[in-house]
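Everyone, carefully examine this protein record:
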Amino acid sequence: MRDDPLHYLQRELQALRDQGLYRSLRVLNGEQRARTSIDSRLVVNLSSNNYLGLTTHPTLRERALEATRQLGVGSGSVRTIAGTFEIHMELERRLAAFKQTEAAVVFQSGFAANAGTVAAVLGRDDVIVSDELNHASIIDGARLSRAQIKVFAHRDAAAARRILEELPRGQRTLLITDGVFSMDGDVGALPALCDLADEFACIMMVDDAHASGVFGRAGRGTVDHFGLHGRVDIQVGTLSKAIGVLGGYVAGSRALIDVLRHRARPFLFSTSHPPAVAAACLAALDVLESEPELIDRLWDNTRFFKAGLAGLGFDTGASESPITPVIVGDAALAMTLSDRLFDRGVFAQGIGFPTVPKDKARVRTIVTATHSRDDLQFALDAFKAVGAELGILR
């Protein structure tokens, strides 16, 4: 019997255990709700990206069921062969109108949208200028493109300027930022970066995954929030966070979308979404435009919870969104905080390196529109108790 060539992986797993970083998957036993059952325990859920509660919205449920009855459970092919339904085209038309662009294309995930787009529009002779905390999918897409990658300090437009000033005039350059950063909850320096893109003739791109459905009119994202329509060439969004379903999309010019349909490898080589997914996404856009009170409630809850954490003395960093980190520094301490909170009925995941810097481990919380004040006060009480036990409170 031959030796296991993957035996070294056991050492890597043991190293994670020794550092207190090894985690088992928590299992959701019911629906993705503000209070739900995880690992057979009823908890207040502060770890879901389901910002508006649309995963269980009755309109989305009914549209998904109707599409399944009419069109089946799968598409059976990639989009470029036989997997494009009319409902896929309708969703892309609606997304383009929603984002106020000429066209849009849907991908199987937000990760695929970012990685596939960057790799498709740039090559080895080009340059990417990227915020140091941009999402992993942007980083992977940049590597796949084989373009030269230059990184500027987080949200530091002056640092981005210094990089751009050193590049030859006429150099094809992509300037890219997250709209809302997924681990810190702060907002990208989009207005200042758009000014740089105009001045240096850059392609401007924003990943609005955590801003879609949260910022801007009816959740149109940071481009709308800052009034920058027409100044961002590539807008990426997700359909799996505030939209409540699955997938990602890119919105921009007709030429951009046509190129992505011909060159973006995730689009070319992945089976398209089941009809139920496209139908539910269309329903979500209807809900966003007809039920603005959901976003209002999301922000009311966000302000209440942020104020509560700050009042208790927790370090919540520079968050400006419903993503609110509780930063404790040490990774093992963050995992212990997460576990103790779970024991008290609050599900908030610990996050450590390499997702965040080694000295910035945290428990990451996300407030949703469907949390009640009782839910949030229950969570604050648990944070207070566990924070005191662990000596975290400032």
